């Protein structure tokens, strides 16, 4: 059975999730802005995404690690 882990920051937001099944460095990492919107997610060696929001905190786009817009 694979071991999984969940890690939270000081504001109880998910900051990392680990599992050997993820591939790459086996850890998904997350960052947030001051309004608790997720601003990035990264799986080392595999993929990275940045998240953009409008003034009303609505998600407007998601950009991959190569700078290509994948949503929005």
Concise overview:
The protein is mainly beta and 72 residues long. The chain is 0% helix and 51% strand.
Describe the model.
This protein is mostly beta strands. The chain has one domain (5-71). The protein has no helices and 7 strands. The protein has a 7-stranded antiparallel β-sheet with strand order 1-2-3-4-5-6-7, with no helix packed on it. It is flat. The model has no long low-confidence stretch (mean pLDDT 91).
- Radius of gyration based on Cα positions: 13 Å
How much beta, percentage-wise?
Answer: over 45%
Q: Give the biggest beta sheet.
A: 7 strands, antiparallel
Order of helices and strands: EEEEEEE
Mean pLDDT: 91
The rough form would be described as flat
- Helical fraction equals under 10%
According to DSSP, the number of beta strands is 7
Number of continuous helical runs: 0
* End-to-end gap: 38 Å
Query: Can you list the strand order of the major beta sheet?
Result: 1-2-3-4-5-6-7
* Overall number of structural domains: 1
Uncertain residue ranges: none
SS content category:
mainly beta
Summary keywords:
flat, 7 strands, mainly beta, 72 residues, 7-stranded antiparallel beta sheet
Which helices and strands, and how do they pair?
Blueprint: E1 5-8, E2 14-18, E3 27-32, E4 38-43, E5 47-53, E6 59-64, E7 69-71
Antiparallel strand pairs: 1-2, 2-3, 3-4, 4-5, 5-6, 6-7
Protein name: RHS repeat protein
Organism: Xanthomonas theicola
InterPro entries: YD (IPR006530)
């Amino acid at each position: 059975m694979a071991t999984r882990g969940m890690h939270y920051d000081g504001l109880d937001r998910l900051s990392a999730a680990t599992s050997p099944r993820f591939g790459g460095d086996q850890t998904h990492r997350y960052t947030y802005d001051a309004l608790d919107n997720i601003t990035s997610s990264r799986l080392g060696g595999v993929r990275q995404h940045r998240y953009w929001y409008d003034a009303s905190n609505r998600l407007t786009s998601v950009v991959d690690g190569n700078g290509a817009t994948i949503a929005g």
